[in-house]
Amino acid sequence: MSKQESSAYPPIERGASLLLAWRLDGRRVLLIGGGAVAASRLGFLLQSGAHVTIVSPGPLEASIAYRVATEPDHITWHDRAYGSSEGGDVSADDELPVGDYDMVLTAVDDVALSRAVCLAARAARTPVNVADVPPECDFYFGAQVRRGPLQAMVSTSGAGPKIAVIVRDLVADAIPENVEDAIEGVGALRAELRERAPGVGGELSKRRMRWMIGTCDAWTLGEMGAMKAPEVRRRLLDDGWEKHKVLGPEAVGVGASVSARVAKALDGAGAVWAAGAGGLFTGAAVATLATLYFVRR
Amino acid sequence: MSKQESSAYPPIERGASLLLAWRLDGRRVLLIGGGAVAASRLGFLLQSGAHVTIVSPGPLEASIAYRVATEPDHITWHDRAYGSSEGGDVSADDELPVGDYDMVLTAVDDVALSRAVCLAARAARTPVNVADVPPECDFYFGAQVRRGPLQAMVSTSGAGPKIAVIVRDLVADAIPENVEDAIEGVGALRAELRERAPGVGGELSKRRMRWMIGTCDAWTLGEMGAMKAPEVRRRLLDDGWEKHKVLGPEAVGVGASVSARVAKALDGAGAVWAAGAGGLFTGAAVATLATLYFVRR
């Protein structure tokens, strides 16, 4: 192996998790527990469209109780403890076996029950998370932020959960306000492109992907929201796709492009410069008037 | 339900994925395919410590070939196509059945084979991802960034993959350079705290968590790296934990704390304010001198 070849492929840095966006729409999830941690899990599960079976003796944490009352199509609540215990032995033997579910989450203070559920889930090949017990987790939750169709997660695989939260807040600040408009606009463009040039795989599929990437590269995030307008999409497809061209915003009459570019340039360091310049002029003006006033007296 | 109660719990915004950090250390993954997409998957799998079985006729994409040659303990390569086909029917019938694996990924241009693998994986309850065919995916990959133990992912659940990449780059810029030091320092502190006050669950566990969160709140990310020093941790534990106190960096002699706090305060909006103020004074000074000069002539 030559030096150049090996340096092209850096050594593998192990210790990571595989970060995933798990699809739960229409799937069945078993949630064992009814406290604050279970409440947090429930929120994420409902957002993902899962049907959640909660097993926990009441009273439930307030937000869980609210969701049970208002989301009857998405939640079934069993007001009892999970599993059985005989002669002091806790087991996951229950009329709602973990193997009937697509995912199992436990958030209870019962170490023996958690362990029994984990073992049963592994035997049934059901993905499982036991809150606060890493060895009994097939997956961890991270610190998250959602902006409509865009989601971001920060994870330290348990090494620093509080730091994950701090970084998540920085990440949330870094996500542009108009990202939802951009996703909506680009999504509508891609959908119409697929109507014009349908099919999966092959040369056309590759050309479609290249054109979409090229077009996205020619627009800023702030400009992409303009693609929500049908006329803009029509011009991109008629004058761009059909003619094997990639068009920027100016080419399809998106007038806000200049101001959007300026806004983008001013973002971050640019804003510091602008504020400095603004301050410079304000300071100069005030000082000039003041100096004239005092000198002329 | 009173107005106040319902406004405390916002309506569920569906359509999200459940973002997860999947643990694959020591797990077995079947990767069908040997091209560019498979290469990207392989990188993430190796970082997560999985053992990967690759099934694909050679030649392999260059980086896959390199990993096969240099990671013999983590990769087994079968130089052949996956599955069988008889009378034009493709099936996932193979001597390496998907049910023997903890996860199956396919990245091939063969639609019939992908579908067969997906069906077999679902029957065997093995999580599956078929590249570019969302309905055949239990999970999606997002745009990712890794900084040692910290990982972040941006996903649009397929609505705007290119936008996810753009936002990922913004997110990468927003993650502080020294975050690895912070995680290492806080991780070492937490490990030593667990040695002093061991046990899972109960009051002690809660006090431990409260103290860790309180301590993290009293330190900036930039300061936390100082916890890598054993003397700093010893003082935090002896003078803080043992005495039921939360200590900031000054209390344990971390000198950089003031400048770090100033740097933190100046970050973002603070920098704009400071630049504006700086400009104000500079502008005032220059204008005053200039005005005096011209008026006095």
Structure overview:
Two copies of one chain form a homodimer. Chain A is an alpha/beta fold and 297 residues long. Chain A has four domains: 28-140, Rossmann fold, CATH 3.40.50.720; 142-175; 179-261, no CATH class; 267-296. Chain A is built from eleven helices and eleven strands. The first copy, chain A, has helices at residues 3-8, 36-47, 62-70, 111-123, 161-174, 179-196, 202-218, 221-224, 230-241, 257-266, 269-296; strands at 18-22, 28-32, 51-55, 75-78, 84-86, 89-91, 103-106, 128-130, 139-140, 143-147, 150-155. A five-stranded parallel beta sheet of chain A has the order 4-3-2-7-8, sandwiched between helices. In chain A, helix 2 (36-47) links the parallel strand 2 and strand 3. The relative contact order of chain A is 0.07. Strand 1 (18-22) of chain A pairs antiparallel with strand 9 (139-140) of chain B, so a sheet runs across the interface.
Which features would summarize this protein structure in a list?
homodimer; 297 residues; alpha/beta; Rossmann fold; 4 domains; five-stranded parallel β-sheet; two-stranded antiparallel ribbon; 11 helices; 11 strands; transmembrane helix (chains A, B); Sirohaem_synthase_N (chains A, B)
